[in-house]
Write a structure and sequence with these properties.
- It is a single chain.
- The protein is of the alpha/beta class.
- The chain folds into 2 domains: about 220 residues, Aldehyde Dehydrogenase, Chain A, domain 2 (3-Layer(aba) Sandwich); about 40 residues.
- The protein is about 35% helix and about 15% strand.
- The strands form 3 sheets. A 7-stranded mixed sheet has the order 4-5-6-3-2-8-9, sandwiched between helices. It has a two-stranded antiparallel ribbon with strand order 1-11. Strands 7-10 form a two-stranded antiparallel sheet.
- Helix 8 packs antiparallel against helix 9.
- The two termini are about 60 Å apart.
Length: about 300
């Protein structure tokens, strides 16, 4: 962006996110769970729109935690190249992340969160220097904790509890990031209502990642960037717009009224005032008076 500014080159920034999944009290957990697992752990959590904050209504919280605990326990870490297992979580793409993530998790625990699973780098027996991190489940996270202020980009499920829709929206919107979010609800109208109040560039109702469709504008707000790619808006962002006007009717051309031609006539300002009234005033009587004024100013 700094380099682009040197020559005033337009640019689009699609940066990171701290996306939420909100599970309302009326959500179908059996439907939502597989989608949330995919949204959190796909590509070892290394997705710009990966789910980094899972907000669960208090009435479903314990059931959700129990069910995801059972699933995450079964996940396997390794290399798809040489390991003789079906791998769920592969390597991290950036070096030095293990220590950073472990420190964030430990800080959250000291702040009151509970670490249920994982929370540390995984040492691969064949590739001890490779960058792996255990699938992690961190629960009872609260809005003020340090881990919510940084993008994780890792296989870490962070679970929070909420009581009302308004509270969930407030938690989501508190982040400086604003890329995408998901809302899970048995009431479509409530999902739509919440989506309109979330400060972000994209929302999936009862889904995750559907906004990847290439006919939709993709991008965020806040420190998640600006501009859009994908869809008509994305194509337009790659173009420099030019406005061109021509006469639709060749023999009907622009003509400057004599009263407005240079050198200006003394009645010019009165003519313009009447023209504005004629075009924009709501009163029919005033419009008629303006027409009279235009005729008078034009002829004098």
């Amino acid at each position: 962006m700094k380099a682009a500014s040197d020559n005033l080159t337009p640019c689009i920034l699609e940066l990171g996110g701290k996306d939420c999944a909100i599970i309302r009290h009326d959500a179908n957990l059996s439907h939502a769970l597989p989608i949330i697992m995919r949204g959190t752990f796909q590509n070892a959590g290394q997705n710009c729109v990966g789910l980094e904050r899972i907000l669960v209504h208090e009435s479903l919280y314990n059931e959700f935690v129990d069910r995801v605990t059972d699933q995450i326990k079964k996940m396997k870490v390794g290399s798809v190249l040489n390991d003789d297992i079906v791998v769920d979580v592969g390597a991290m793409t950036m070096s030095g992340q293990g220590e950073r993530l472990q420190n964030l998790i430990q800080a959250s625990v000291s702040e009151g969160a509970k670490l249920i699973l994982g929370g540390r780098p995984y040492i691969h027996p064949k590739y001890p220097t490779a960058q792996y991190f255990e699938p992690t489940l961190l629960i009872d996270v609260t809005p003020q904790m340090t881990i919510l202020k940084q993008e994780l980009f890792a296989p870490i499920m962070v679970v929070m509890k909420f009581s009302t829709d308004e509270e969930a929206i407030e938690i989501c919107n508190k982040s400086l990031y604003g890329l995408g979010n998901s809302v899970f609800s048995g009431d479509q109208s409530k999902g739509d209502w919440m989506s309109k109040r979330l400060r972000c560039g994209m929302v999936n109702v009862n889904d995750f990642g559907a906004t990847y469709l290439n006919n939709l504008p993709f991008g965020g707000v806040g420190i998640s960037g600006f501009g859009r790619f994908g869809g008509i808006e994305g194509l337009r962002s790659l173009c420099l717009m030019k406005s061109v006007t021509t006469d639709r009717i060749p023999f009907f051309k622009t003509s400057i009224p004599r009263v407005l031609d240079y050198p200006m006539h003394s009645n010019g300002s009165s003519f313009v005032s009447n023209l504005v009234i004629l075009l924009y005033d709501n009163s029919l009587i005033d419009k008629i008076k303006a027409i009279t004024g235009l005729i008078k100013n034009s002829s004098s």
